Amino acid sequence: MRFDVITLMPEMVETVAGFGVTGRAEKRNLIELHCWNPRDQTEDVHRTVDDRPYGGGPGMVMKADCLLKTIREVKKSAPEKTKVIYLSPQGKPLEQSMLLDTSVNEQSLILLCGRYEGIDERVIELEVDEEWSIGDYVLSGGELGAMVVIDGITRLLPSVLGHNESAEQDSFSDNLLDHGHYTRPEVVEDLDVPAVLKSGDHKAIAIWRRKQALGRTFEKRPDLLENRALSDEDQKLLDEYLKK
């Protein structure tokens, strides 16, 4: 998987990407990361990438010319039909299903990171395929959003994680929150590991984990269950959890 990130702060993206799952994946050539600075496509001595907004108002807006040149330069080296994703508060809220779909169906992504008050709207009209948002809040730029996308997709790629089932069992993999996890020591401040997890009965453990996932989702993110038709088995497990 190839990621091309258009950013005024390439060092920030490269530094974050160098750690953890993404860093290991890049070293193993499971992903490619390329950063492109729009300042390299400017022609004035100050390498100006922003200007005051038409109509007045606070802040500055990233200019169309340098961004369009950068996107089109990236496309020359990227695979054909590469999507351009703009990280934006106005974008579609990011969900696990979007990351999974991208990891399966796309070879590369161009991630456009805005700064200041945003980018010239004509860039979106001319070159952006989709706008994605990582939440209903405002950050100083799209770089952190781009890294969330890169990390989320990378860990879904084959051979990236140490265990083949790790990604499949994560929170939101089935649009449910994850069950609780325990490790040694067996007792922590009088709190013991649930007995079923020490039983060696894999079927019972799987049922317990499913029940916990359903129950925790009901308690913490009931919105995820609002439009979900539970199977008879899942409904029974949820009812049992709520009676505890």
TrEMBL record:
A GO cellular component annotation in the UniProt record: cytosol
Name the keywords, alphabetized.
Answer: Cytoplasm, Methyltransferase, S-adenosyl-L-methionine, Transferase, tRNA processing
Its family remark reads:
Belongs to the RNA methyltransferase TrmD family.
EC number annotated for this UniProt entry: 2.1.1.228
Q: For binding S-adenosyl-L-methionine, which residues are annotated in this chain's numbering?
A: G114, I134, G135, D136, Y137, V138, L139
Output the Gene Ontology terms for molecular function.
tRNA (guanine(37)-N1)-methyltransferase activity
Subunit info here reads: Homodimer.
A single BP term in Gene Ontology:
tRNA N1-guanine methylation
What the entry lists under CDD domains is as follows: TrmD-like
Q: What does this protein do?
A: Specifically methylates guanosine-37 in various tRNAs.
This protein's name: tRNA (guanine-N(1)-)-methyltransferase
Q: Its domain of life? A: Bacteria
A Pfam cross-reference name: tRNA_m1G_MT
InterPro entries per the UniProt record, alphabetical: Alpha/beta_knot_MTases (IPR029028), tRNA_m1G_MeTrfase_C_sf (IPR023148), tRNA_m1G_MeTrfase_TrmD (IPR002649), tRNA_m1G_MTases_N (IPR029026), tRNA_MeTrfase_TRMD/TRM10 (IPR016009)
Q: What class of enzyme is it?
A: transferase
